[in-house]
Write a structure and sequence with these properties.
Layout (H helix, E strand, L loop, with lengths): L5 E5 L2 E4 L3 E6 L15 E7 L8 H10 L9 E6 L5 H20 L12 H21 L7
Antiparallel strand pairs: 1-2, 3-4, 4-5
Length: 145
């Protein structure tokens, strides 16, 4: 596959650019009514449910991690309008898409349960004893009269 027709996400996942749909819309910002209007904001749409690029496990992971960005039809929607250039906004939204997908597909390592070492338990007890002694010495002295 050529580098232009696919978008690398992870080492084992490439999304064909043909699956991504771009749409240019009016961008908000300074200016009055009908002044300097240009369609520079870019909306990216990607059909998560219909893409053959994802395995069922990956699709489930993306669906859960990016649930707030996926609409009821199963389409992931992203917008970018930070630049005054439509081309830069398109590049920015594509990079953000790659990063979001990379983070959504990341499987965190399972935590291994560990126990404190004998030396650390001993240090903990010594610190408690020192603290207790400090507090005991702050108490008023009871003198027998």
């Amino acid at each position: 596959m050529s580098g232009e027709s696919v978008l690398p996400v992870t080492d084992d996942l490439w999304v064909p650019r043909a699956e991504l749909t771009y749409r240019a819309t009016r961008s908000g910002g300074p200016g009055g009514q009908h002044v300097n209007t240009s369609s520079t904001r870019v909306e990216l749409a990607w059909d998560v449910e219909g893409t053959p690029s994802l395995t069922d496990e990956q699709r489930t992971r993306v669906r859960t991690k990016l649930a707030n960005r996926i609409n009821t039809e199963g389409v992931l929607l992203l917008t970018e309008g930070g630049s005054r250039s439509q081309n830069r906004n398109k590049e920015a939204v594509t990079e953000r898409f790659q990063e979001l997908l990379r983070e959504a597909l990341h499987v965190p390592k399972r935590r291994k349960k560990t126990r404190p070492t004998r030396a650390s338990r001993e240090r903990h007890l010594q610190a408690k004893k020192r603290r207790s002694e400090v507090k005991r010495l702050r108490r008023p002295v009871n003198r027998p009269e």
